[in-house]
Amino acid sequence: MKHVPQAASQRAIRLRDLWPLFAAYAVSQLGGWVFRAGAVYDIFDKQGGEGSVLGWTLLCVYIPILVGGKWLAPLSDKYNSIYVMIALDVLCTLILLPVLFGSDMISLGNVLMALLVIVGLSLATPVFTAAQSSLIRKRVAPEQVTTAMSVLSNITWATNVLGTVGGSLLLLLLSFKSIILINLLSFVFSGALLFMFLQRRPLFDTAAPQKTATAAESAPAAEARAKKIKWVLLSSIFFLNLGAGVINLFPAVAARDIYQSHQIGLSYFYLGNGIGGFVGTLLIVRLRKHISEVPLLMTSSLAIGLLLLSMSWFPSAMFSILISSLMLMIGQVFGVIAHTYLLTSHAPEQAGRTSGLFMFATFLGVAVNAGLFSLFFSKVEVSSFSIFMQFCGACSLMAFVILAVHAYRKRGDFNHKSRSHGAGEQQGNKAAH
Question: Domain locations in the chain?
Answer without folding.
Answer: 14-208+219-419
